[in-house]
Design brief:
210 residues; mainly alpha; 8 helices
Length: 210
């Protein structure tokens, strides 16, 4: 198993844990835990494979679904031991985002050879599962939080792609992308990094238009 594949399994496990933690915050039953864990763990990769016109990864390899199931059961019996489940969810989400930004970019680059497509598939793989989780669990969406989120996935996917095209070994390129994504998202969570927000202002009146 190469480093990228290991990162893929780790990302599924971590994202599945965030889905299960969201279920614990909503006090769902075990089925709710399993559903949110699976949707979060494999949602981003499913979208990626559909876009790339590939067989969906978990259909041919059931280990991914089994990982989600095991993680969901573990969190079901241990979530009460975590003092701040939402804070843990955000940090685990940052780890999953960093891992999936690399994995998604690696698959997009391997299939198409296009750095642009690789970067886009990296961003989608890293963010879509978390978006689905928040939508289904009724949590505040990560996209609507003020801290940087999508940009972190963009940084990870782009740096992995650049490193790979520059001839770095897969492990080095993967670590470079992972570190970049996690550093940006971690800094956003820790220090509140954010881009300037849009400020509403009066529009132009029809009579002012030349």
């Amino acid at each position: 198993m190469n480093p990228i594949e290991l990162l893929d399994y780790a990302g599924v496990a971590v994202f599945a844990a965030t889905g299960a933690l969201a279920a614990s915050r909503k006090q769902l039953d075990i089925i709710g835990f399993l559903f949110l864990a699976c949707v979060t763990g494999i949602g981003g990769g499913t979208l990626r494979d559909v876009i790339l016109n590939l067989p969906v990864f978990w259909v041919g390899n059931r280990d991914y679904v089994l990982i989600c199931v095991v993680v969901a059961v573990l969190v079901f019996f241990s979530a009460h031991l975590v003092e701040s489940r939402y804070k843990l969810l955000l940090w685990l989400d940052a780890i999953g985002l960093a891992a999936f930004s690399v994995m998604g970019a690696a698959k997009g680059l391997a299939i198409t050879g296009s750095p642009v497509v690789a970067t886009i598939t990296g961003v989608l793989t890293a963010t879509f599962g978390g978006i689905l989780r928040d939508l289904l669990a009724g949590e505040p969406s990560v996209l609507l939080r003020p801290e940087i989120y999508v940009t972190a996935a963009l940084a990870g996917a782009a740096l992995f792609t650049v490193g790979d095209l520059a001839g770095l070994p897969p492990l080095a390129a993967g670590l470079l992308g992972f570190a970049a994504a996690f550093a940006v998202r971690g800094g956003a969570l820790k220090f509140g990094w954010a881009f300037p927000a849009y400020k509403s202002r009066p529009g132009r009146r029809p009579e002012d238009i030349p």
